[in-house]
Amino acid sequence: MDDRTYAADAEPGTDATVAGWVHEVRDLGGIAFLILRDKSGKIQVKFEKDEMDDDLVDTGLSVHRESVVRVEGTVEEEERAPTGVEVVPDSLEVVAEADPELPLDPSGKVDADLSTRLDNRTLDLRKEEVKAIFQIRAEMLRAVREQFRDLGCTEINTPKIVATGTEGGTELFPVTYFGREAFMNQSPQLFKQLMVGSGLERVFEVGPIFRAEEHNTPRHLNEATSIDFESAFYDHTDAMDACEAVVRAAYEGVAENCAEELETLGLEDFSVPEADFPRLSYQEAIERVNATGKLDEQLVWGDDLSTEAEHALGEDVGRHYFVTDWPSEVKPFYIKDHDDDPELSTGFDLMHPSLELVSGGQREHRYEHLIEGFEQQGLEPEAFEYYTKMFRYGMPPHAGWGLGAERLVMTMLGLENIREAVIFPRDRQRLSP
Ligand code: AMO
Questions:
Q1: In testing the pocket of ligand 1, which one of 210, 226, 358 has its CB within 8 Å of the most ligand atoms?
Q2: What pTM does this model have?
Q3: How does DSSP assign 378-429, residue by residue?
């Protein structure tokens, strides 16, 4: 049983057992200190050479950095100690010795490049600022789940091994499934839609999506975490309201519960984005991009927003914003067109000033239109029969969206590379750890 006292909870005047990693040993001659680090923080262990058992002092001072030790002793107040208290040890046990040569320095005094850090992620997460990212990520997910509950959603889990792709044929990872070709799922899109037609009506999922992206960029992963939402009887504007609520709740959760982590990351001025994210139509968006004069070539109707265009617009708008009413031709088959203008879709994206966070829209729930959409996109409706046939048995109008969890963390914390927001990222080069 874990009956130790966390470093942060050690009370002066008590006997305590602390356990954790050797952060540092400082030998000042007659006196020496071992700084022990655990989940809660650090605590100083003091060795007075003349007054203590030689074996105890020798063990404490010869232990390699990052070894795991257990120290029993008395907690005393000590103004000069980094946390105002120190442990005067009665005994010290080396629980797990670390090699003297470490592949990276968890004290952070020596920088390591990202690749070395990812190869040795266990050691990398011993750094306060790296651990803080994943504590914030966990809090973000907790807050998001709570907001979904407030929205009346049921959490679902859908298959990750599937027979067909949905987000464009070229970005699929094939796998062999008992001798048949199968794929890693790119999105829970079709499953979540099938669930709004079920008795559940309003659902969300937090789970992996797999994209065989060719590009190695600071904003793409080959395995990402998607936060998906879908609701019956919602249109695209309702879906955008829910999207804004979830994104703001994520920021609120972090602002309320991660003050220490934010401080560790130097983000004391962290703030929750103001409500009412502007909603620009695609037409307005391309006009605004063109007006910035930052692109070599003017955008025309039907162009996707390039990274440069996203940056120019993001700088111009200066906060989170939606781009709505995209040309139907650039949106997938499951997105519904506007009733009064089939050239215009109900698809939307939520943008952070630096990159896209979310895609969503109202869905095509009318069976005949859905089949037409498949054909227009060059997909065989037969391969999707498990999905399309449910649209013949009472499928309500519905809308939803997918939010990239790593992109949310990345933009929230101003991380330069999306890999910083994943413990074990998957990219073109990286398949382990
Ligand atoms: P889309 O393909 O735009 O839409 O993905 C939704 C969001 O997921 C994140 N994302 C990624 N993050 C990191 N690396 C990737 N390779 C990657 N791909 C996607 C992004 C993106 O905005 N089915 C629709 C959603 C819907 O309509 O409900 C979909 O998957 O943040």
A1: 226
A2: 0.96
A3: T--GGGGHHHHGGGGS----EEEEEEEHHHHHHHHHT-SSGGGG-SS---SS
